């Protein structure tokens, strides 16, 4: 049976390095405070006007395409994962297609936040398996820095996130010892609002504890983005960090074990686990629970922060570039994030 393989991989991170100490000019925090809670030492921020989610994706895609030994004209489908698109609409997929002067191919945008890249990989895998496409570009890219609250009020979230992009080219393979073995996708929207960016949105605060005063259902107007929302800092992301942590440390190991069980493997068979880089403490907890050694897990959140949909492909690319992933290795990708959504993919390199 035809499977899909990663034929090329690339990453891009902005040149601008922002250390924990650099954030002191904006908020009451410290390097020790941030490292203790997240493991992060520094992150990258894109240029305010010179770089976008799409332009970073282009740079990562160029490398992945070149390493796959093809050209942009050979790409026949795009799957683009991000929570920070250039525009509210259209999505980044078509902007990437335009920027790279590709043929008039399909472009699909995936909005699964931290799990976005693994979801996108699973979607692309199905298209390869059916024979519909032969060269699929799968991208995870984020520009968080333009939408964070750089004040003491917003420090619990703003210190965590960074910018960057990762990309792969997925192609068919008939080799028994190569390719994606299985993917596993899950969601539970029960607690969707504890990790979310509410505004702008069409919800009109129907879920909120505090309704907007004197709002009339028959009125036309300013509920999408109002001065009141801006004044009350309601246009920034919200996260109940403790609740997210508690859920993540349960679902992360579950979805990894699900992938292993589906393929008759054990944790000892994992050559490399690439977890979504949400928080170093979460990754360390998962590593300890699964009894994996340091050589079986790759973390780089220390240097890039949480790059959401970009974190898995950036880490995967970096681990491969450092020679930590070799042909025939069993590689597990796993992610958990807003929604909640969580996912895993198991593959032989």
Largest sheet: 5 strands, mixed
Report the total helices.
10
Shape descriptor reads globular
Straight-line N-to-C gap: 17 Å
- CATH topology (level 3) name of the largest domain: Peroxisomal Thiolase, Chain A, domain 1
CATH superfamily of the largest domain: Thiolase/Chalcone synthase
Helix content: 25-40%
Mind telling me the CATH class of the largest domain? Alpha Beta
Radius of gyration: 20 Å
Write down the secondary-structure element order.
EEHEHEHEHEHEEEHEHEHHHEE
Question: Would you count the extended β strands for me?
Answer: 13
pLDDT under 50 segments (min length 5)? 209-215
Sheet/helix structural class: alpha/beta
State the domain count: 2
CATH architecture of the largest domain: 3-Layer(aba) Sandwich
Q: What fraction strand?
A: 15-25%
Description:
With 349 residues, this protein is an alpha/beta fold. It has 2 domains: 3-173, Thiolase/Chalcone synthase (Peroxisomal Thiolase, Chain A, domain 1), CATH 3.40.47.10; 179-192 and 239-348, Thiolase/Chalcone synthase (Peroxisomal Thiolase, Chain A, domain 1, 3-Layer(aba) Sandwich), CATH 3.40.47.10. 29% of the residues lie in helices and 22% in strands. It has helices spanning 31-38, 53-67, 92-99, 116-129, 155-158, 227-231, 241-262, 280-290, 301-304, 311-321, and strands at 3-12, 16-19, 42-45, 77-81, 106-110, 136-142, 164-173, 179-187, 195-196, 238-239, 272-275, 330-337, 341-348. The longest helix is centred in the C-terminal third of the chain and has 22 residues, at 241-262. It starts with a strand and ends with a strand.
